[in-house]
UniProtKB/TrEMBL annotation:
GO terms classed as biological process: phenylalanyl-tRNA aminoacylation
Protein name in UniProt: Leucine-rich repeat-containing protein 47
Biased composition (Basic and acidic residues): 268-279
Source taxonomy: Eukaryota, Metazoa, Chordata, Craniata, Vertebrata
Protein species of origin: Camelus dromedarius
GO molecular function, one term: RNA binding
């Protein structure tokens, strides 16, 4: 009896025919096909997906990715969240030499031993991996060779597992030199190794709601650490326990550095450490006073100034309210208001729009990691279209894209229409509306035609949204505001030279970051940009995030932030 032909996957055929870079497989249809075809169906789908972004999610019948994945998958982003993968990965996932983002959250993984894990350690199975999300599983331990398998890891999310410790190899010197964000909240961690100080790039650490009794004093030796969260741990040092519940990160690290009883350097060293710290500060102050005269002229010429307006100081602060429906579509957003931008001289507007385009191509990874939207604050009104339902708007954009392609006699669509496939398979679409209910932004596709930035725009509302992480939103917003400050200073110093030529505009990004020998530029009428804090809250008014916080905008040595 002849074997039945494999079931067709129309999504794969469409993606191949239209040469799409992203593919999303989810919903009841996927569940039924995987249930009927089992392991072979899932393996065939993953093997055939020659795309940049592949997501297979929400399938309770998908328990393993199947064989042949490494040979067929060419994605830089692989999302396998909210399936039933586990208790291990058989066969192991790697090697995947091009993979940069891997999301295995919300599965049933219990362990990732050799042969049933992420990939081989030598040579590295995931040599380019930057972001790994293992949250919401049942992991009891991490693979000891994780750092060898993924040596370029920058973000590691382990929230909501059953871990009681980290493998020692994770914190060995030089193991993960690029790791900047480590989240392992809601586990069973009993201790944190002093060797965590070897994570030289660590900026954010979340170990809340574990079973830690001590915080190692060596944590204060992490040179870039800006944000920590140890709430929900029963610490032996009761003063430290109170501090982690209400004090800023800097205060906590200073307490540990001074020999507080947080982690083993001893209470007896506190007094001596305090005295030494005082002497060090006095030496630095004298050194600074002796050299500031020599450096004043250079600093004045090269410094970029940003002034942060706190919510409490703002008589009319802007607030973004997030509805719960957006959680499964685009859960992360940060916003900011920037006042004082001067886009009138020369090619300043062109430079600003060009920098936004470059950010979308690079840091935003062609809008798959995040999307930027910029608005004229004084003209926040609806999209330049009649009011329609979300699905109708998507359909309208698709028709426009096809018509535009035919008119231009092109094989593929261009402009904003080339991002429409990012919404394929979505039941809900993210959008930003103002207080009157008018849509001003439709990420990752477009924002309001009438709120677009013009030469006369001086006050802007900025938003960055992401389906990946909040830190990505913050990093991209930091970079965008830095670019705006550089453009504002550059154009201000070159007003007298008239309009910049196009070649100058193209080369300006290479000139902006260096100091300029124009003494007195600040005093000649180049005031700092004002960055107003914007709060993001849920429907009950509970704060989700405020930007910029005290740890944000720490972006470059030549930038001074007045808070």
């Amino acid at each position: 009896m002849a074997a039945a032909a494999p079931e067709a996957w129309p999504e794969l055929e469409l993606a191949e025919r239209e040469r799409r870079r992203e593919l999303l497989l989810t919903g009841p249809g996927l569940e039924q096909r995987v249930a009927r075809g089992g392991r072979a169906a899932a393996a065939a789908a993953l093997h055939a997906a020659a795309v940049h972004y592949l997501e297979v999610s929400g399938c309770g019948s998908l328990r393993e990715p199947g064989p042949g994945l490494a040979q067929g998958l060419r994605s830089a982003h692989l999302v396998l969240r909210r399936n039933a993968l586990g208790p291990g990965l058989s066969p192991e996932l790697g090697p995947l030499p091009a993979l940069r983002v891997l999301d295995l959250s919300g599965n049933a993984l219990e362990a990732l031993p050799p042969g049933q894990g992420l990939g081989p350690a030598e040579p590295p199975g995931l040599p380019q991996l930057q972001s790994l999300n293992l949250s919401g599983n049942r992991l009891r331990e991490l693979p000891a060779d994780l750092a060898l398998c993924a040596p370029r890891l920058q973000t590691l999310n382990l929230t909501g597992n059953c871990l009681d410790s980290f493998p020692a190899a994770l914190f060995r010197p030089g193991a993960l030199p690029l790791l900047s964000e480590l989240a392992a909240a809601d586990n069973r961690l009993r201790e944190l190794s002093p060797d965590i100080s070897h994570l030289a790039s660590l900026k954010t650490l979340d170990l809340s709601n574990n079973q830690l009794s001590e915080i190692p004093a060596e944590l204060a030796d992490c040179p870039k650490l800006k944000e920590i969260n140890f709430r929900g741990n029963r610490l032996r040092d009761k003063r430290l326990e109170k501090m982690v519940s209400g004090c800023q990160t800097r205060s906590i690290l200073e307490y540990l550095r001074a020999g507080g009883r947080g982690g083993g350097r001893g209470r007896g060293r506190a007094e001596g450490a305090d005295k030494e710290e005082g002497r060090r500060k006095r030496r630095e102050r004298r050194k600074q006073e002796s050299s500031e005269g020599e450096e004043a002229a250079v600093d004045e010429a090269s410094r970029l100034l940003l002034r942060v307006l706190h919510v409490s100081e703002n008589p009319a602060p802007l607030m973004v309210r997030v509805s719960p429906e957006v959680k499964d579509v685009r859960p992360f957003i940060v916003g900011a208001v920037v006042r004082g931008m001067d886009l009138r001289p020369g090619n300043a507007l062109k430079q600003f729009l060009s920098s936004q385009t470059k950010l979308h191509e690079d840091l935003c990874e062609k809008r798959t990691a995040a999307t930027i939207a910029t608005h004229d604050l004084r003209a926040i009104i609806p999209l330049g279209r009649r009011e329609v339902k979300a699905k109708d708007l998507v359909r309208q954009l698709q028709l426009e894209a096809e018509e535009h392609r035919k008119q231009k006699k092109r094989q593929n669509v261009s402009g904003l229409h080339r991002y429409l496939h990012l919404l394929d398979g979505k039941e809900n679409y993210p959008c930003l509306v103002d207080a009157e209910g008018d849509v001003i932004s439709f990420p990752p596709i477009t924002n309001s035609e009438k709120t677009k930035i013009k030469k006369t725009t001086c006050d802007l509302f900025l938003e960055v949204t992401s389906a990946t992480s909040l830190q990505i939103c913050k990093d991209i917003m930091d970079t965008l505001i830095l670019k705006m400050a550089e453009i504002n200073k550059y154009t201000s110093e070159n007003k007298e030279e008239g309009s910049l030529s196009d070649p100058e505009a193209d080369a300006v990004s290479g000139q902006l970051s260096g100091p300029r020998a124009t003494p007195g530029a600040e005093s000649d009428g180049s005031p700092p940009l004002v960055v107003e804090q914007v709060r993001v809250v849920d429907e009950e008014g509970h704060l989700k995030v405020v930007y910029p916080s005290k740890t944000d905008l720490d972006i470059a040595a030549h930038v001074t932030v007045i808070r």
